[in-house]
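Running co-folding for tricarbonodiimidic diamide.
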Amino acid sequence: MTSLVVVARPFDFALQPGRAVLLVIDMQRDFIEPGGFGASLGNDVSLLQAAVAPTRALLDAWRARGWPVIHTRESHAPDLSDCPPAKRLRGSPALRIGDPGPMGRLLVRGAPGCEIVPALAPLPGETVIDKPGKGAFHATPLQARLQALGATQIVFAGVTTEVCVQSTMREANDRGYDCLLVEDATASYFPAFKAAAVEMIVAQGGIVGWAAPLAAVLSAFTAFSAFSASSALSAQPAR
Ligand code: TIU
């Protein structure tokens, strides 16, 4: 199968149809909207809004081809049995995980704040993985799902770049997946940390993976569609 060449750093990423999964990390109201977990930690949540529209554009392009999408949510059971005390008690936030806030209990499954923002809501048939940690492989069925899909490549979007996205990229890299981070489709409460995380990922010949702007991914899709159309035309019998 012909691959789609995405102009990326540290070098081109050969996206393979049938092998690539889009993994959208934790685009939840609790991180992106006021009154949620991110805000309880003292963060300016408006910084994460910038990633929503590019992530939607990436989802639209991916879905148009019928390629697999997996969403994650950082979330806990209502009894917090999957939330280690070390996580719940860390620091001195305004509200802790499980406390009631304006969008319901923070990071608790079933609370409105735990849901993915409406613009990026999962479609029927898309996998949603609830994860108790920062990395999406820890204590989840993600690896089994990727194996069932026959995936060898993961394209990443989501928040926050240097916390849950980078943790998951590192976990995925160690499990043998080629990982591409779409730079406009990720954001951090700390823009300098986002920039540093991207540099850390692509340094040393792609020690963790690749990074590319959304435009590069969309260009690869467009070029691939044009190539497929011309191949189909040239395959037509001569009249
Ligand atoms: N606090 C922060 O930057 N992130 C998180 O707690 N979780 C995710 O990144 N999803």
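Result summary
Residues 76 and 82 are 6 Å apart (CA to CA).
The longest helix spans residues 214-234.
Job closed.
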